Amino acid sequence: MAMTKFELIGTLCLISSIALVSSSDTFSVQGRVYCDTCRVGFETNITEYVSGAKVKVECTHFTTNKVEHHNEGVTDSTGSYKINVVDDHENEICEVVLVESSLENCKEIEIGRDRAQVLLANEAVEMQLE
């Protein structure tokens, strides 16, 4: 039985990079997860979004590689997730990472396509909005 890939949606990099920020320094990281049944690396007309997939936002200090922040979320019935992250993380490299699929026929996670870097710093978000 062939396993299908489980990966972040191709446009997630853009969606996640545009993390929303409020005046209270809370960022909202949003995106979708899908099963790449055709192994093409992008959405198709038969794309299956994964509900119940575990996703995490992890921020690692860029000089020490120590994990400074970790927050998990689960996708809803449309394969969408929203993870709130408190505080500015300008000295850290933050990524949205797939943890686990809820689909038995879609458990294989392809390394390198299982994550998307996100900017969670007030200055970075302000520069993107200008």
From TrEMBL:
InterPro entries from the UniProt entry: Allergen_Ole_e_I_CS (IPR006040), Pollen_Ole_e1_allergen (IPR006041)
Top-level taxon in the UniProt lineage: Eukaryota
One cellular component (GO) term of this entry: extracellular space
PROSITE patterns named in the record: OLEEI (PS00925)
Keywords: Disulfide bond, Signal
Signal sequence residues: 1-23
One Pfam family from the record: Pollen_Ole_e_1
Family the UniProt entry places it in: Belongs to the Ole e I family.
UniProt-recorded name of the protein: Pollen-specific protein C13
Encoding gene per record: MGS1
